[in-house]
Amino acid sequence: MKEKLCHLMETLKLRGMAQALDQVLLKAEKEGTATREALYALLLEEQRHREETSLKNRLYRAKIPWDWTVHTFPFDLQTAVNKTQIMDLAGLSFVQRADNIIFIGDPGVGKTGLAISLLRQAILSGYKGKFYNAQDLLDELYASLADRSTPRLLNTLCSYDVLLIDELGYISLKPEQANAFFKLMGERYGRKSSIITTNLDYPDWYDLFRKKSLVDALLDRLNHYCITIRINGRSLRVPKQTSD
User: Residue 129 and residue 124: Cα distance in Å, rounded?
Assistant: First the structure.
């Protein structure tokens, strides 16, 4: 009967229950557990297994390149960052409000680490998210124009609760890419949260995108639901001094 149960569970893709079957049946036999209690224990294991599988899949699809978390970020080294503010953001109320977060600062100050930390926290809490290098995102948007798959790509990008766009700075940018980026930000506006890291303060965005009217509209939308965090600290990439 146990073999039949295992086979049926595998057929129905109840893998959590199948994995826990021996342990639950052994405990039930040893302790005289009621049938309904054993069944409840199996269902709990199935729920746990599905939640773990879902989390692994969301983390995999997010393509997060580094293992930063809000608990491993070196706040003691980067004193320009307000730890209380970051930990408050880690509560994810900004995702619930569909607010944007823009980290502005020089290279190496920890913008990407903080952004990744918040993205990871959102995924651990059940949200869908994705990490993109800004140039890669713009190139993907540009490539979609050739095969007319832009609407489908935009739908996918707009499905993420949190979209992290890293290193929006001195990048190669074609007019078509700028237009697609503006459209993406417009469709996410007020509906989903975007996190952007950049070494350009807002006035410099006009030089990057070169379309004043569109940049005006973009900044107006971004800043309407936006938390701007400027990090005017030292680089965390400075080699440690060693004594002879």
Answer: 10
Give the closest residue to 199 by CA, choosing from 239, 234, 166.
Answer: 166
How many whole angstroms separate alpha carbon 240 and alpha carbon 39? 57
pLDDT in tens, 30-80: 888 778 888 888 888 888 888 887 888 888 889 999 989 999 999 999 999
Beta-ladder partners of 230 = 104
Whether 221 and 93 have beta carbons less than 8 Å apart is answered as no
90-110 pLDDT, tens digit each: 999 999 999 999 999 999 999
CB atoms within 10 A of CB 224: 11
Dihedral sign of CA atoms 216, 190, 67, 230 in order: positive
> What's the whole-model pTM score?
0.83
Provide the sign of the torsion angle of the four alpha carbons 187, 193, 199, 202, taken in this order.
positive
> What domains can you pick out in the chain, each with its CATH number?
2-62 (no CATH), 83-231 (3.40.50.300)
Sign of the torsion formed by the C-alpha atoms of 237, 59, 128 and 131: positive
pLDDT tens, position by position, 181-208:
999 999 999 999 999 999 999 999 999 9
Q: Indicate the pairing of strand 162-166 with strand 129-133.
A: parallel
**Secondary structure (3-state) at 63:** coil
